[in-house]
Amino acid sequence: MATVSMAQVKELRERTQAGMSDCKKSLVEADGDIEKAVELILKKGLVKSAKRAGAAASEGVVATESAADAKSAVIVEVNIQTDFAARNDDFKKFAADILTVAAVADDGADIGAMTYPGSDATVEDTRKALVGKLGENITVRRWSRLRVEAGIVHSYVHMGGKIAALLGVKTSKDVSGELSFKKFVDDCAMQIAAMGPLYVHRSQIDDAAKAKKSKFFNEQLEEEGKPEAVRPKIIEGKLNKWMREICLLEQQSVVDGDNTVDKLREALETELGAKISLTELVRYECGEGVEKAPEKDFAEEARAMAGT
Questions:
Q1: Within 10 A of 65 (CB to CB), how many other CB atoms are there?
Q2: Phi and psi at residue 127, in whole multiples of 5°?
Q3: pTM for the whole structure
Q4: What is the extent of the structural domain holding 32?
């Protein structure tokens, strides 16, 4: 029987996120071969699936698919617990198939209840089976569709599927073949991915959101000891700064720091002789808002195994 070192156990645990005890047993069974131990851990997924069912899934992929006429596009987020498992071919195929399902789904449909491609099973039944096979919780977390009538919906995927964005662009005439238009739209979608705006323009910010932010700024100023009489003016300035930061059109362009996105849009309108409006955006970041469980300390886990 091969001697298994703690360094091997640590490496296997980092690669699979399996427990130390499972890692050690798998390494012993695999005669110290880490690749074989990885396979053993995956094959034992059914044993671990019940424990994993409620675990936080914050890794995974965000993907997009555009309609042939570019008038609409869908975006999906499919999560799994570890980045290691997110690279598994079965998971990647499942995520790709979910995108296929979303592309033909009615707006707002429950994807889990739909038929999984190439089978008679539902998406949810297929998900459960894959949880059992891989030993990690998997969630089809969210999906959305963006549509336009006159113009295009452009999609952009960043960091190999960790962030993706959709952007609706309305035009007064067909300029979709113009290179400057294509570059502008792609740059805007990249800006959404990189800078995370919440809205296209400030008119989309509802009064409740502005009131909540004003309240926050007022409490902040009160703590700083600012007199009540001067607060409204300061709050107004802070609100304007906040709106500039979260509205795509008012952000400084990431490709042309001397201009806002809106200034570049206006210049493009003049160049092409067409009205160009950015209408709506959707941005997904993989695992965004998912509360991750604190990582276990390897040294403490090792001492616990040793009984010290």
A1: 16
A2: -60, -45
A3: 0.77
A4: 6-54+293-306
